[in-house]
Amino acid sequence: MRIRRILLVCLLFFMSVDVAGAKKKTPFVTLMTHDSFAVSQTLLDSFQEQYGAEIKILKSGDAGAALTQAILSRKNPLADVFFGVDSTFMSRALSSGVFEPYESPFLRDITDSLKLDPSNRLLPVDYGDVCLNYDKSWFLRKGLAPPRGLADLILPAYKGLTVVQNPATSSPGLAFLITTVRKYGEAGYLDFWKKFRVNDVYVTAGWSEAYYGKFTRAKGGTRPIVVSYASSPAAEVYYSEKKLVDTPTAGVLSAGSAFRQIEFVGIIANTAKKDLARKLVDFMLSPAFQKEIPLHMWVFPANPETPLPDVFFKYAQKAEAPTILLPEAIENGREKWIEAWTDVVLR
Predict the structure, then answer these.
(1) Arithmetic mean of pLDDT over the chain
(2) Which residues is 202 bridged to in the sheet?
(3) Strand partners, 135
(4) Residue 336 shares a structural domain with residue 296
C-alpha cells in the first residue's frame, strides 16, 4: 500500500512537470525568405512580446530559388508566410496558387503605386531601383566621364569596365536584363547584348560576387561599373571605416537605365497557422518593421511616412523615371529573354 502511494506521488509529480513544460512551450510562425533578408533580433523579439509567438526564419537561397521551393512544397508547406517575391517573379508566384488573399489593415498606409496585386495575395513591403553603379575615384583618375546610360556601355572607351549578374541566377541580373528589353525593345535588346559581349562585359552568378569580387571598390576588383542598387552609395558611406562626407560611388539613374524592384509578402495558402500568419504580415507592414528596412536591407520602405535614417535620406537615390513592367508582361517574356540572352552572351 505504501509503495502504491509512493508510485502515485511520483506519477503526479512527473505529470505536473510535463504540464508545466508544455505551458512554457512558445508557439511560433515560420517565415520563408531569401538569403538577403535582415532585421534586428530586437525587432523579432518585439513580435513575441506583442503576440506571444516566436518568428522562425527559413532562408532558402536567392529569391527565385526560395520561391521555387515554396511552390514545390505548397501541399505540405515548409513555412506559413513568404517574403521576397519581387516584381520579376510576381506572376509566377500568383499563378502557382501558393498564396491566399489577406487585406492587412496596414495596407492603407502603403504607397498605391506599389500595390500590383488587386487580390491582396502579395502585399508590398519595400522597393528599390536596380541600376548601374560606378566608382567615382576610378573615373576621376582616368579622366573618363562616368557612363550616363546603357548606350555608353558598348562604346570602345568603356570596354572591359562593367560587371553584371546572370539573369538566370540573380534577381538584380534579371532586373537589368528587363531594363535592356524595355529600353531597346524585343527587336533590339539582343543586338545591345551582342555589342556588350564584344565590349568585354563580365558576368557573375550573383550580386555579392560582382560587387565584392569584381567591382573596383572591392580589394582586387578591376571593374569600375557594376549592376547594383540606387541605395548602394548610402551603404558605402554607412559601412566605411573612414568618415566620409560624400559617396565614393554613384548610380546611373537616367531615363530607361534603372528598374524599380518591389518586394512582397504573402500568406502560404495551406498554412495551419492562419491567425499568426496574418499577424506576421501586419507586423511587416507596421511602422516598427518598416523603420528597420533602410539600414538592414538597404531598400526603401513601402510606407512613405516612414522616417528615413540620415545616411539613407542623404545618399540613397531613386530613379526619376524607372523602368516599370507589368508582372504579366514579365511572366510572358522572362524565360524567353533569359534563354536568348544565354545564347548571345554565354555560349
Answers:
(1) 91
(2) 163
(3) 249
(4) no
State the pLDDT confidence band at 243, using cuts at 50, 70 and 90: confident
d(CA 18, CA 23): 9
At position 99, the amino acid (one-letter code) is F
Residue 276 within any structural domain of the chain: yes
Are 47 and 137 in the same domain?
no
Domain span at residue 296 reads 8-126+261-309
Segment 73-98, tens digit of pLDDT? 888 899 999 999 988 889 889 988 99
Task: State the total domains in the chain.
Answer: 2
Contact by Cβ (8 Å): 93, 122? yes
The β-bridge partners of 28 are 54
Name every residue whose Cβ is closer than 8 Å to that of residue 301 and which is 6 or more positions away in sequence: 125, 126, 290, 291, 293, 294
pLDDT tens sequence across 149-159: 999 999 999 99
Residues 234 and 289 in one domain: no
CATH number reported for the structural domain that contains residue 246 in this entry: 3.40.190.10
212 and 337 co-located in one domain? yes
- The region of weakest confidence among 61-70, 130-139, 161-170, 212-221 is 61-70
| Domain-embedded: residue 30 | yes
Please name the residue that has the C-alpha cell 518568428.
55
- Residue 161 contacts residue 210 (beta carbons within 8 Å): no
For 255: left if phi > 0, alpha if psi spans -120 to 50, otherwise beta; the answer is: beta
d(C-alpha 96, C-alpha 72), whole Å: 9
CA-to-CA separations, 256 to 19, 36, 311, in angstroms, rounded: 63, 26, 26
Stretch 18-28: mean pLDDT: 65
Check: CB of residue 285 under 8 Å from CB of residue 104: yes
In a domain, residue 191? The reply is yes
Same domain, yes or no: 110 and 161:
no
Q: How many CB atoms lie within 10 A of CB 62?
A: 19
User: Residue for cell digits 524607372?
Assistant: 322
